[in-house]
Amino acid sequence: GYNDCLEWLYETDKSLDCADNQGNTPLMAAAFNGKVSTVEWLLSNGADASLTNHENKTPAAMAEENLGRNMGAYKEQNDVLYNMVARLKAAAEGKPYQPLPRTEPMDEGED
After folding, report:
1. Longest dimension (CA), the chain
2. What is the DSSP letter of 73?
3. Cβ neighbours for 74, distance < 8 A, ≥ 6 positions apart
4. Is the confidence at residue 51, as pLDDT, over 90?
5. CB-count exposure of residue 56 (10 Å: 0-12, 13-18, 19+)
6. Separation CA 56–CA 98 (nearest Å)
7. Kindly report the CA angle at 56 between 54 and 60, in degrees rounded to 5?
8. Is the pTM of this model over 0.85?
9. What is d(CA 30, CA 5) in angstroms, rounded to the nearest whole number?
10. Lowest mean pLDDT among 25-29, 30-34, 82-86, 98-102
11. Contact, 6 vs 16, CB < 8 A?
12. 11 φ, ψ to 5°?
């Protein structure tokens, strides 16, 4: 599957930051689709979290887009996605990652 393809790229010294025709890297695709384990694998193997695509979006921005789409669907998943965004932002800024505290879902009427 997808992870096998990424491992092949890594093992053959291909760039984990290769981009498609829209400038999206594997890290961006994994972030947008909420693939937390793939994001972690890519970051731990040197993928660049500071790159932007042709729309000037970083992997963190794409993950936030995904989080916005799925907000409130599953509390546990929201916590995982929030922490994935925090991990991507820390990596892009070259800072250590600090897990975010667990969140409480907002009521639909709250701002």
Report:
1. 51
2. S
3. none
4. yes
5. exposed
6. 25
7. 120
8. no
9. 13
10. 98-102
11. yes
12. -70, -25
Query: What does the alpha-carbon distance between residue 69 and residue 86 come to, in Å, rounded to a whole number?
Result: 17
Mean pLDDT for the stretch of residues 34-40: 89
- Whether 25 contacts 56, CB under 8 Å: no
Q: Residue 1: what pLDDT?
A: 55
Cα 109 to Cα 65, 100, 105, 106: the distances in Å are 20, 24, 11, 8
- Could you tell me where the DSSP H helices lie in 1-111? 2-11, 26-32, 36-44, 59-70, 75-93
Give first-to-last CA distance, the chain, whole Å: 40
Structure tokens that stand for 64 in this block: 């936030």
Structure token digits, residue 92: 């892009």
**What's the CA gap between 106 and 62, in Å, rounded?**
21
